[in-house]
TrEMBL record:
One of its GO terms (molecular function) is (S)-2-haloacid dehalogenase activity. This is (S)-2-haloacid dehalogenase. Catalyzes the hydrolytic dehalogenation of small (S)-2-haloalkanoic acids to yield the corresponding (R)-2-hydroxyalkanoic acids. Keywords: Hydrolase. It comes from Ruegeria marina. Its EC number is 3.8.1.2. Transmembrane segments: none annotated. Belongs to the HAD-like hydrolase superfamily. S-2-haloalkanoic acid dehalogenase family. InterPro entries: 2-HAD, HAD-like_sf, HAD-SF_hydro_IA, HAD_sf, PGP-like_dom2, S-2-haloacid_dehalogenase. It is an enzyme of class 3 (hydrolase).
């Protein structure tokens, strides 16, 4: 029996691309806001990789985002008037249209929580902004490491005092689910074909036999109920 669902957040629950671009446009009106947001996000994984590989100690994602903002601003040849204010754009991301209804339906069946690379502070403020009804905040800060390292998934399970097999990881990214499955968790896939905008080529469909493959979060709630015999 699955007793908890933990969720990837950026891209799976919220539309980071359009939301960050909106904030960039307000602060840097002369810049291609979508291109800037995309470039900022592109620095995300390389920054975490240095920590996962042991080349750098754990640094919360808030600080990595700020460092990455400076990198992208230099590349675009612009000066950001208030770096900290724009960096908080990652706390003001809009949920996909199906997310809130789906999460409420899922919360009636199991514990729900983020398992994000975002810090506890970031995830808390984002939840307040977007209305995400989490039971608690889990993820990278607990493990002091970044997905897809197994410690991140296992730390979230341990915090709930549940075995990995009692927890389902939900994500729009096949590599996230592959890592969760390798750590012993159940898996649920929900595609977000617009996460990266027009021309997205990856994660358009499930690439393995995940325990649940759903069209959206509403469908996920229905399928989860059927899986659990509800």
């Amino acid at each position: 029996m699955i007793k908890a669902l933990i969720f990837d957040v950026f891209g799976t629950c919220v539309d980071w691309r359009s939301s960050v671009a909106r904030e960039v446009a307000a602060v840097l009106p002369g810049v291609d806001a979508l291109a800037f947001a995309t470039a900022w996000r592109a620095e995300y994984d390389p920054a975490m990789a240095r920590i996962r590989d042991g080349a750098r100690g754990y640094v919360p994602l808030d600080d990595l985002h700020l460092e990455n903002l400076d990198t992208v601003a230099r590349a675009f040849g612009v000066r950001v008037p208030d770096r900290w204010a724009l960096n908080a754009a990652w706390e003001r991301l809009d949920p996909w249209p199906d997310v809130l209804e789906g999460l409420v339906a899922l919360q009636a069946q199991a514990i729900i929580a983020p398992c994000s690379n975002g810090s506890i502070a970031l995830m808390t403020r984002l939840a307040r902004y977007a209305g995400l009804p989490w039971d608690c905040i889990l993820g990278a800060d607990l493990a002091r490491d970044y997905k897809p390292r197994p410690e991140v998934y296992l730390a979230s399970c341990a915090a709930l005092r549940l075995a990995p097999a009692e927890v389902m990881m939900v994500a729009a990214h096949n590599d996230d689910l592959a890592a969760a499955r390798a750590a012993g968790l159940a898996t649920g896939f929900v595609p977000r074909p617009e996460e990266h905008g027009p021309g997205q080529e990856r994660d358009l469909r499930a690439e393995s036999d995940w325990d649940i493959v759903a069209a959206d979060f509403r469908d996920l709630a229905r399928r989860f109920a059927a899986l659990c015999g509800g």
